[in-house]
């Protein structure tokens, strides 16, 4: 067993673009944001120009509760680059607002992961030229 | 295929099958190896191109269409321009596009060639084609094994699919490579499911032996007009049907099993390839029970279980039991990936292996495989892609002109 933590090595960091900049600014402010359609109300992630449900371009940025549940997971032992400490646990989280996000599980033993586990976002200061704060998720409840 | 179907669909009875006038007449794999000393991607692809042309009994000057960026280099070096050219690089869609060019009269004889060597030498990281950079995945250590594992884990949760059934798939494919003298891992077995389960974990539930290898090599095909095919060196092989299902760019968004589309909410990413297979079977007038050889793409063991469900060989959730029922082995009703696939034959770079299911399907229908030849094979189903990559392509090959 090993305690899962945010990666602190020289990992590839996001290079925010004009569409995703509000998302990464939210992370800097400690808020997980997603896009919601002003026409039909559907949530969208990853940051997009079109609503995933109705193709409207009328999207607004909304603060998420930051909570959700694990939809799927894997535990990686062969790191993608040597900068990553293993094991690490990629997860897909279904957020309470109904959108999906890819992240890593932290704050628990690697063997504790399970589909349906309730999780909550936390932010880790990864730095880099764009001052990135990466969202990770830890068990909640 | 969708374009062809739209163009021909309403009047198919009058004009006949869209690929009636097309035949695959040349196929060639160069030597495949973990490392090909003395080659680069251009030189190994050119060797493949010349091999496929010779296999067809043709000369370079007979080519008047090329597919792929590397095939274009052949075009210049052999001075056969002007010729029709496509940039399509990735496996079955490129074959379909070459066939469309012939069917539409844009070219008479099309060369499709690719190869890769020398691009992966620093093995501390996973292969470059397994780790596209993207701001929403790269920081989380994602690569292809993790992407496909997220799909497999969801299937295990929903249906109770076991690592043992996945390991059985991997052992079966690796044993096909073990007896294939042309495979990179020839003679490295035989393997049992326990050998797979006892290999080191890569991305849970995938052990090392559940995963594709990395290697180098070249591959090529030649297609020509069916009226000419009978005069050439080898038995022509025909395209009975094909289809491509894509949901978006690979490895940039969460690989969600239930990802659906607004146009067809019933067709989720977990079943990607279903629509393509339905179109292919409809064009061919065939169904899964007619397939003699399943040259299914095998990036990871679970993907075979998923494909049998997606294409309608078995019901959703029953793929694990299906692969354990004796159908996928040599001598079974639907033998899989008979040269050893990407696990044991070769994964020659970013695109080579996406053509090699088609190459093997042609070799099976010709009856020329040096190992694991399926007796009297009439119909081969060749595939590429997978759920973790959000696309799957399907091609049905047969011996009879459609």
From TrEMBL, chain A:
Source species of the chain: freshwater metagenome
Domain ChsH2 C-terminal OB-fold positions: 61-124
Pfam families found in the cross-reference section: OB_ChsH2_C, zf-ChsH2
PANTHER family in UniProt: BLR3430 PROTEIN
Domain ChsH2 rubredoxin-like zinc ribbon: residue ranges: 24-59
Gene3D superfamilies: 6.10.30.10
InterPro entries documented for this protein: ChsH2_C (IPR002878), ChsH2_Znr (IPR022002), NA-bd_OB-fold (IPR012340), Thioester_dehydratase-like (IPR052513)
Name this protein carries in UniProt: Unannotated protein
From TrEMBL, chain B:
GO molecular function, one term: acyltransferase activity, transferring groups other than amino-acyl groups
Residue span, Thiolase C-terminal domain: 263-398
SUPFAM superfamilies: Thiolase-like
Name of protein: Unannotated protein
Species annotation: freshwater metagenome
């Amino acid at each position: 067993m090993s305690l899962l933590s945010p990666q602190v090595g020289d990992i590839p960091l996001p290079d925010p673009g004009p569409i995703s900049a509000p998302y990464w600014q939210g992370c800097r402010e400690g808020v997980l944001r997603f896009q919601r359609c002003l026409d039909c109300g559907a949530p969208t992630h990853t940051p997009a120009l079109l609503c995933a449900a109705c193709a409207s371009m009328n999207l607004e940025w909304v603060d998420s509760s930051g909570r959700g549940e694990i939809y799927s997971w894997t535990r990686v032992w062969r790191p993608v680059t040597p900068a990553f400490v293993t094991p690490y646990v990629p997860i897909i989280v279904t957020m309470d607002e109904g959108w999906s996000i890819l992240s890593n599980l932290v704050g628990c033993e690697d063997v504790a992961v399970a589909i349906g586990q309730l999780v909550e976002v936390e932010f880790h200061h990864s730095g880099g030229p764009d001052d990135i704060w990466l969202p990770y998720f830890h068990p909640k409840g | 295929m969708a374009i062809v179907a739209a163009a021909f669909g309403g009047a198919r009875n009058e004009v006949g099958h869209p690929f009636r006038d097309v035949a695959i007449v040349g196929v060639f794999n160069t030597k495949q190896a973990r490392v090909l000393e003395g080659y680069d991607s251009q030189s190994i692809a050119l060797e493949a191109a010349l091999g496929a042309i010779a296999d067809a009994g043709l000369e370079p000057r007979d080519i008047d269409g090329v597919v792929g960026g590397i095939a274009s280099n052949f075009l210049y070096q052999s001075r056969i321009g002007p010729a029709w050219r496509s940039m399509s690089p990735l496996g079955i869609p490129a074959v379909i596009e070459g066939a469309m060019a012939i069917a539409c009269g844009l070219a008479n004889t099309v060369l499709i060639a690719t190869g890769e060597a020398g691009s992966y030498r620093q093995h501390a990281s996973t292969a470059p084609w397994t780790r596209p950079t993207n701001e929403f995945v790269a920081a989380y250590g994602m690569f292809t094994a993790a992407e496909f594992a997220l799909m497999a884990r969801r299937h295990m949760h929903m249906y109770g699919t076991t690592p043992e059934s996945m390991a059985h798939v991997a052992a079966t494919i690796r044993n096909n490579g073990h007896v294939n003298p042309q495979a990179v891992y020839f003679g490295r077995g035989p393997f049992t499911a326990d050998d797979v389960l006892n290999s080191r974990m890569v991305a849970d539930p995938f052990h090392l032996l559940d995963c594709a290898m990395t290697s180098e090599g070249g591959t090529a095909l030649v297609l020509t007009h069916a009226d000419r095919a009978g005069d050439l060196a080898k038995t022509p092989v025909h395209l009975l049907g094909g289809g491509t299902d894509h949901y978006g760019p690979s490895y940039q968004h969460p690989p969600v099993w239930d990802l659906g589309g607004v146009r067809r909410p019933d067709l989720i990413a977990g079943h990607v390839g279903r629509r393509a297979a339905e179109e292919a079977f409809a064009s061919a007038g065939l169904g899964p029970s007619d397939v003699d050889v399943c040259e299914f793409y095998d990036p990871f063991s679970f993907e075979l279980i998923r494909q049998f469900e997606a294409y309608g060989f078995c019901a959703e959730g029953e793929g694990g039991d299906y692969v354990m029922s004796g159908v996928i082995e040599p001598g079974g009703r639907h033998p899989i990936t008979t040269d050893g696939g990407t696990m044991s034959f070769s994964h020659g770079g970013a695109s080579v292996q996406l053509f090699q299911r088609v190459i093997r399907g042609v070799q099976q229908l010709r009856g020329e495989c040096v190992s694991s030849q399926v007796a009297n094979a009439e119909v081969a189903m060749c595939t590429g892609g997978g759920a973790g990559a959000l696309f799957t392509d399907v091609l049905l090959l047969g011996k009879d002109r459609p």
